[in-house]
Predict the 3D structure of the following.
Amino acid sequence: MENIQLQDYIAITQIAFEWADSHDKKDWDRLRNILAPNLLIDYSIVGQQCFPHMKSEEFVSMISSPNFVGDPLVRTQHLIGSANYEWVSDTEIVAVHQIRAAHQRYANLDTTTVAYRGHGYGSVKHWYKKLNGVWKLAGVRPEMYWSEHDFDKIFSAPA
């Protein structure tokens, strides 16, 4: 197995940051900019389906949906920790990042009252592909080791 070159390491860690921060800021154009045209998406851990061949725009639509992270009552912070990298080829790297994903669902749009908290702890597997000389995110699969509070109520309508 080859070691990852510094410039490749920097590129994919920047993509991981953009992936997390674009979710937290609900900046869907930032998310679009890091995506490969086709992705493997498996958010089944949070009630979504597994899509082995999803178009990038479909992924952005799913994530930004009012039933998912795009819900204006939902706020998140995805903190990425250490990672393990696998150099697959000159055009493919697989990484498993440690992650803590804090979630809050507010009772109303003024975000003064928290209705539910739900935090997930685990890892997220990312597939990276180099397309036309540029690294892009080509797949996402979170794995939750455990959660706290009311994680199951974050992406549902308030009670």
